[in-house]
Amino acid sequence: MKAAVYYGKKDIRVEDWEDRPLQSDEVKVKVAWIGICGSDLHEYVHGPLNTPEEEDEFTGRTLPFPLGHEFTGIVDEVGSDVTRVAKGDRVVINPALTLDNQPEGFDNTEGVATLGLNRPGGFAQYVNVPETVAHKVPEDLSLKYAALTEPQAVAIQAIKESGLKFGETVAVIGVGPIGIATILGAKGAGAKRIVAIDLSDERLNLAKEMGADAVYNSKDYTSDQILENEGFENGFDVTFEVAGVAPTFVQSIDLTRARGQVVILSIFSKEINWNPAQLTKSFVNVKASLGYTYDTFLDTMELIENERINSPKMVTSEIKLDEVPDGFELLANDKKQAKILVNVDGEDN
């Protein structure tokens, strides 16, 4: 079969590739649509980071293999022990893997791995996955937009963790794909005002299109100037840090009111130096959010299906499997991109 195979930093090759034989508890999925995620991009630009150059202790797999964990498809074959799904089912994949392939995913913090990072993923015509991660897609939701469930679920989980209340104010620092999903989720959750902050005017313009009420380029505005301009001298109720560098981590605390909430949902590729005295002086609460719970993933699919969150709005480009290497370069260099979807099977399903 054809796949976009990841070998290492800046090295993705579209070539013939075969996975190991289907296991008894797995299903073979004919991939329909898949999104290029920020974590995929981190692997491409800076990696290997989370992908195994030596045998992964959890999955037993090593590079090279296809990345990709935001995908949907149609069940093409089932293992002998499979009972939850059947051949022909339309499915979306929750890529969280546990030791016993239980469906709780990121509810379990021990032995969690990710499909597409710790074992082969969906940038391929077919992929084998544990049956527990394949969830049926409602008939009135397209496979194209069901593929947005995973990235949107990351943002929804962070919003849940934040305790955001209807009518509160929100700042989002870093408006790449997950930052955009956070804006869409916060808007759906009833935030009174959403402010986006970034270093890229292109991304800020995109954030405004996606629902941000105001945008600020950090090159032009300090935290104090943003608060003064917004009339929030005490700070925002909730701030989401989605950039993953030391200055934005510090800024997220500076922008938040006393006893307000900062949620970190970025991937820090480098260690940072930071003085915790900033917290003791500000009374700001800080927590981190990684992935999503099993329930949040399914809740998010329902929110997209019912159009409670306008996740399809984040799709800025659609490409084919042969164009995946170019798609990674596009996402890395074109700041006007939010979510690039890959139409793997060539069908509008």
UniProtKB/TrEMBL annotation:
TM stretches of this protein: none
PROSITE patterns the UniProt entry points to: ADH_ZINC
Top-rank taxon, per record: Bacteria
Ranges where the Enoyl reductase (ER) domain occurs: 8-342
Keyword entries, A-Z: Metal-binding, Oxidoreductase, Zinc
Organism expressing this protein natively: Staphylococcus auricularis
Cofactor(s) needed: Zn(2+)
Family membership: Belongs to the zinc-containing alcohol dehydrogenase family.
SMART domains: PKS_ER
Protein name per the record: Butanediol dehydrogenase
InterPro entries reported for this sequence: ADH-like_C, ADH-like_N, ADH_Zn_CS, ER, GroES-like_sf, NAD(P)-bd_dom_sf, Zn_alcohol_dh
CDD domains attached to this UniProt entry: butanediol_DH_like
